[in-house]
Design goal:
heterotetramer; A: 315 residues; alpha/beta; TIM Barrel; 18% strand; B: 256 residues; Elongation Factor Tu (Ef-tu), domain 3; Rossmann fold; 2 domains; seven-stranded antiparallel beta sheet; binds flavin-adenine dinucleotide; binds flavin mononucleotide; binds FE2/S2 (inorganic) cluster
Chain lengths: 315, 256, 315, 256
């Protein structure tokens, strides 16, 4: 029996729902020795900024229980280099490309959007990374954050009709509230949940195990939280959702599909299993065969809510 | 065209304590033993499941057809779990990763300066290529490799221990400076791997005496293939990835 | 060398900083076969409500990566039963008791506070559980939540001068903002981070693995997040903090002490290692001996901030 | 005064496959073998580290001085990891936990109805106390205990398999009903452990024929000692904890 993994997101049709989470799959061919990237439904790039960024000092990563902290700092060679050296590679590869963008200002968001709007042959969608310096700069408080998010999103929408996903994390504030706003401002979908802010201390030095006090927590540890937000956003808004957060095997991936995720972005798992993406893809296919599921759309969003049993409180 | 990469479930052939601190682990593989250069490394999943979650990088120590050896110190959680693995267990190993030490040095004489977990790749190098000196610095006799593991090394092997429990007492850089002072530094090429403070001291000496060299600059790693940007090293042409652009860097390129 | 583990919290002096997280150590002597509870610095009770609560339907728990989800639903026999059957036990035991309280209304919070105010011989402090039906009832939105939190806290303060900790979780909103408010309203300290809301799906039934859609995620998985919030609250307000969130061994405990935690509440770890509390206590003592730390106050809050290196963004 | 509790690092003596699905694990302990009653259980940390994170509960299968046996089916992650443990490995085990099956039944004749992972405690019971019938229901021959594990049982052992690959084809309740119908139900006392649907069917029959009995009501557990309230069972006097108030409950007390 053949399983139809085709995944449709508005105008965009992908051969399967497996993609890679921004910043976890290199800039071009780092995983070429392990994965035939052409088998992926789409590729999400490391976040691109207008100017090159050196990122944070070392150490930038440390391991935690079922996960890791990272404070890379959006290191990237900037827009020009990306267009000159990376775009041609992806054009040749022929996999639908989703470019992750972040600006230090609304203008930069606009500029990035405008630039990629002119590359629709390669770039099929944008992931607007709102967990970025502009929004998260130290001392940017609640209200101000909301403003900047709105400005960034408007700036992007003003410059392109490319499919655009806002990537938000619970660290930005109330996820449902923010999702509602950015969708109202024209975003086509939401990407969840990026990382949770966490910390780890070295007993010897009595300081952070990475060069910043905090890092982004990723990996299986955050999966239950990611799954919950994906479900909530899907339920509330019925818009396309790119899910990332601890997806490390077919079981995880299937859980995200069942609560409605459209795209599954494999992140930290790539570091542990370079072939995680394809292993998960195969696992999904095998499950569908076993369960006689002809097409993913029969599985996606098939979650059975628990209903209002019990006395409310979840603790 | 990159050299072919592998990620295998390898069969553990042996995993035995070689001294107070180090274990030697050998596994079977038809692929991971091919065209290996000293300085390259493997990325090892020390346990099935998620504890620990990330892989751990280890240098190639020795290869023979169908067989690969690594030599590791039990430093923390991952290596202690690894030390509990037994013959017959399966281990997920990916590689070969990273660049390598320069093998042919032309007229220059090779000095290897090794410390701590930097010993294995340099012993590997000394077993394969003519080497004048292999200088090994450890905290105490306990971390020293047994003679049996050094017998294939064709070089003058000199040891220092910080506590003086074996060889010269003090830091390995003492020996290095003596050699550079007493002989013609310009004839030497230094290759080093070990704790950062040691390598920094070595590089400082090298610059003082105008000697070229290279260092295997180990950083904690996540992906091991250049994808996560977690293992950056400062060089004069900007940040480089220890795992993919290194781990071996020329002294003259390193920005300390 | 003798290590002084004495922990002072305003008027309260405890022999050590180790306590148990509410709801994870039973109601009285469940762990008596494994732990001599008199060795603990304090005991925090399961949350007590005025009326008895049956809690949520089964299943209530499931395992996740380095943690678990729980939806117990504050099952407890209510205030009267607690006073009649539990208080005498703790009086006999003689360990400083911190009673966790939750109301379905501000009035109930007040009633609970008033009642325990009259038992200062046994009850040394209150932990005001704000992650409770009253505050978290379905459909209680952001603003309304803040109001109810304020009302609950005022009601408590109005009825007792007992040392009172507000137990807040990131699920309630901006932790620093809420902490600031409840402290302004007279709380003596903060208890962090309770659990993060998470989800897990059973592929067979396509519904939640527990009887509610969401459960509270606890265990090592959330430790980096807990550590970060404890540090932030401590840094911002310098008030007493009860830390809970994945503390499972001495390393964890020491990290929390270094960022400033006053009390370390061991929770889920008790389920895995019934003697976790005492093992951690010993581990802290051993570390202090090794490091020649005479008193915990020399360790507590000794964290070395990373400073503003790098380019800001933590991703 | 509660019976003394232990939490030990026990040495694994054997861990071998006894049929298609089940493993028998034996460990050494001077304490966990004392005053054990069938129906009580142990809470086992199947792995060091945090994967899996929680312990797993297993009924006592057999005890002898210094030795404890459990019998387990590989159902998921925890049990499959457990099945990989080898002789000589250490295993953290706490117990004895929970109440037990009624041992002395007076004039009544004992019928044991076992299914799936409920077989071990009932075999333990049948080896210790006079038993009229031991009824075992499994999916297929693969899950059936080998004769060798049943030879100490002094009772009529009747088996059903759902696929008919051994014994009577169908559900174990077929046998039970036949016995109750053909004989004098009031002379019997039923003790059951297994999948919930099976136990529910057994209880329905018991009520139909007016037979008393008790069931070991297994729920997934976290603490195993009554502290987390994660394993509740509905009884006519409200919610009870399977781990501390049970796992054995009287039919007449259970609210289904
Ligand atoms: C390219 C490369 C090659 C290596 N080759 C070898 C080898 O041949 N033999 C060997 O024993 N080790 C080698 N290492 C170091 C080895 O990877 C670490 O010792 C190991 O990852 C520690 O894991 P752990 O979980 O036991 O310790 P952790 O709990 O991760 O850390 C314990 C201690 O080890 C230190 N540590 C962690 N990572 C490194 C690292 N990359 N380098 C040095 N110290 C580290 C930590 O700072 C900490 O102090 C190499 C590292 C790299 C990057
Ligand atoms: C008091 C008690 C005594 C037990 N005695 C035994 C025994 O003697 N032999 C034995 O093989 N098993 C016994 N069990 C069941 C055993 O604990 C589970 O099979 C085990 O925890 C599954 O762990 P896992 O990680 O392999 O599976 P998980 O991944 O945790 O679950 C895999 C499958 O097993 C099911 N499962 C999980 N927990 C239980 C449970 N408590 N009861 C039944 N099914 C469960 C899950 O629903 C799932 O379908 C007992 C359980 C209890 C509560
Ligand atoms: C090393 C690393 C680098 C990352 N870089 C980015 C980035 O540049 N832009 C971004 O939007 N997310 C970035 N992320 C977040 C991931 O895209 C992903 O959303 C998150 O890690 C959760 O998924 P995971 O648990 O599967 O890793 C990064 C994550 C890691 C671990
Ligand atoms: C089974 C269970 C029951 C809990 N019950 C309560 C409760 O009644 N009141 C409360 O404030 N917190 C409760 N909690 C939260 C814990 O007190 C603690 O804050 C949280 O679990 C994080 O700590 P941990 O990761 O060490 O478990 C409960 C947690 C668990 C796992
Ligand atoms: S370890 Fe990921 S880039 Fe080097
Ligand atoms: S498992 Fe915790 S109360 Fe039964």
């Amino acid at each position: 029996m053949k399983v139809d993994l085709t995944t449709r997101i508005k105008s965009l049709t992908l051969k399967n729902p497996i993609t890679v989470a921004s910043g976890t799959f290199g800039t071009t061919d780092e995983y070429a020795g392990y994965v035939d990237a052409r088998k992926l439904g789409a590729i999400i790039t490391k976040t691109i900024t207008v100017k090159a960024r050196a990122g944070n000092p070392m150490p930038r990563i440390c391991e935690t229980s079922s996960g890791m902290l990272n404070a890379i700092g959006l290191q990237n060679k900037g827009l020009e280099d990306f267009i000159e050296h990376k775009i041609p590679y992806f054009k040749k590869l022929g996999v639908p490309l989703i470019v992750s963008i972040a600006g230090e200002s609304a203008e930069e968001f606009g500029k990035l959007a405008k630039t990629f709007d002119g590359m629709k042959d390669v770039v099929k969608a944008l992931e607007v990374n709102l967990s970025c310096p502009n929004v998260e700069a130290a001392g940017v408080g609640g209200m101000k954050k909301q403003e900047r998010i709105a400005d960034a999103v408007k700036a992007v929408r003003g410059q392109t009709n490319l499919l655009a996903f806002a990537k938000i994390s619970p660290e930005l504030g109330d996820v449902l509230e923010i999702a509602g706003k950015v969708l109202a401002q024209g975003m086509d979908g939401i990407s969840l949940i990026n990382t949770l802010r966490g910390m780890a201390v070295d007993l010897r030095t009595r300081s952070s195990r990475i060069a910043k006090d905090f890092g982004g927590l990723s990996g299986p540890a955050i999966k239950p939280v990611a799954l919950r937000y994906v479900y909530q956003v899907k339920k509330e808004f019925q818009v396309p959702v790119i899910a990332s957060g601890g997806i490390s095997n077919a079981q995880d991936a299937l859980e995200f599909l069942i609560v409605g995720a459209d795209l599954l972005a494999i992140g930290t798992a790539n570091f542990v299993e370079p072939q995680a993406t394809l292993q998960i893809l195969k696992g999904i296919e095998d499950f569908c065969k076993k369960e006689k599921i002809r097409g993913l759309d029969d599985l996606r969003g098939s979650y059975e809510p628990a209903g209002e049993k019990g006395e409310g409180c979840n603790r | 065209m990159k050299t072919k990469k592998y990620d295998e479930e390898a069969l553990l052939l042996e995993n035995k304590k070689v001294n107070g601190k180090y274990f030697k682990l050998a596994f079977r593989s038809q692929n991971l033993c091919k065209k290996i250069k000293p300085g390259q490394f493997l990325h090892v999943r020390v346990n099935q499941g998620q504890d620990p979650y990330l892989r751990r990088p280890f240098s190639y120590f020795r290869v023979s057809p169908g067989r690969v050896e690594i030599l590791y110190e039990v430093l923390g959680r991952g290596t202690s779990i690894l030390s509990g693995k037994k013959k017959g267990d399966a281990l997920k190993v990916m590689g070969p990763l990273g660049n390598a030490f320069t093998e042919k040095l032309g007229k220059k004489k090779r000095i290897l300066v090794a410390g701590g977990v930097g010993v294995p790749p340099l012993v590997f190098l000394a077993e394969q290529y003519p080497t004048e000196y292999l200088l090994i610095g450890t905290k105490s006799k306990a971390e020293l490799l047994p003679k049996s593991e050094l017998k294939k090394v064709r070089a003058k092997v000199l040891c220092t221990t910080e506590d003086g429990s074996y060889g010269t007492k003090g830091r390995v850089t003492l020996l290095l400076e003596k050699i550079l002072k007493d002989q013609h530094p310009e004839e030497f090429f230094i290759q080093t791997c070990g704790p950062k403070p040691m390598m920094e001291a070595v590089i400082t000496l090298a610059r003082k005496y105008g000697v070229d060299g290279e260092a295997s600059w180990d950083e904690s790693m996540a992906c091991g293939v250049g994808a996560c940007l977690g293992c950056m090293v400062k060089t004069k042409d900007g940040l480089k990835r220890a795992c993919a652009d290194g781990p071996v860097f020329q002294f003259k390129d390193l920005k300390l």
